[in-house]
């Protein structure tokens, strides 16, 4: 289940009222930083930009592949643990603008997580440590630690047996 906070909107659809919910200048800055970072081939520079310029929480040795797009309006709601890989052209959303409401939710990605290419991560999900997400997955709910998931909508393909994990 996704953990999002809902905000009701009256009148025009919520996206039409975008700049009543987030500053234009914040969004403008985030777009510039994220678009530049999408093409920068140096992980340390990319992570520095995400941490210092737009407020994302990123662990050590995490790698954002070419053309990854973090949320443009609320990137500070995204945290990624240590030693994780976010695959090519993945989108990480922390917001949803709907007709009569908008929703915000933290995205928490654990340590040693592998996210396959062209994946979309929706707001309000937690991806546990050691999880593996296949390419082109729609992550629409929490992913247990160590699980292998995939598909649209996402399904659990395998999850480590608690007993076998303890004996290792």
UniProtKB/TrEMBL annotation:
CDD domains hit by this protein: LbH_MAT_like (cd04647)
Top-rank taxon, per record: Bacteria
SUPFAM superfamilies according to UniProt: Trimeric LpxA-like enzymes
Pfam family, one: Hexapep
InterPro entries per the UniProt record, alphabetical: Hexapep, Trans_hexapeptide_repeat, Trimer_LpxA-like_sf
Gene3D superfamilies: Hexapeptide repeat proteins (2.160.10.10)
Listed name of the protein: Acetyltransferase
Organism: Gottfriedia solisilvae
């Amino acid at each position: 289940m996704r953990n999002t906070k809902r905000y009701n909107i009256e009148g025009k659809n919520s996206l039409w009222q975008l700049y009543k919910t987030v500053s234009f200048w914040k969004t403008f800055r985030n777009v510039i930083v994220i678009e530049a970072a999408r093409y920068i081939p140096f992980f340390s520079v990319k992570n520095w930009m995400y941490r210092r310029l737009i407020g994302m929480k990123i662990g050590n040795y995490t790698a954002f592949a070419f053309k990854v797009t973090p949320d443009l309006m609320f990137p500070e709601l995204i945290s990624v643990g240590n030693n994780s890989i976010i695959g090519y052209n993945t989108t990480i959303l922390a917001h949803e603008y709907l007709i009569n409401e908008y929703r915000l939710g933290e995205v928490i990605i654990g340590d040693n997580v592998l996210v396959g290419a062209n994946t979309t991560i929706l707001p309000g999900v937690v991806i546990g440590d050691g999880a593996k997400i296949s390419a082109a997955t729609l992550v629409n709910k929490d992913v247990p630690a160590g699980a292998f998931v995939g598909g649209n909508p996402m399904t659990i393909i395998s999850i480590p047996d608690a007993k076998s994990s303890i004996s290792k």
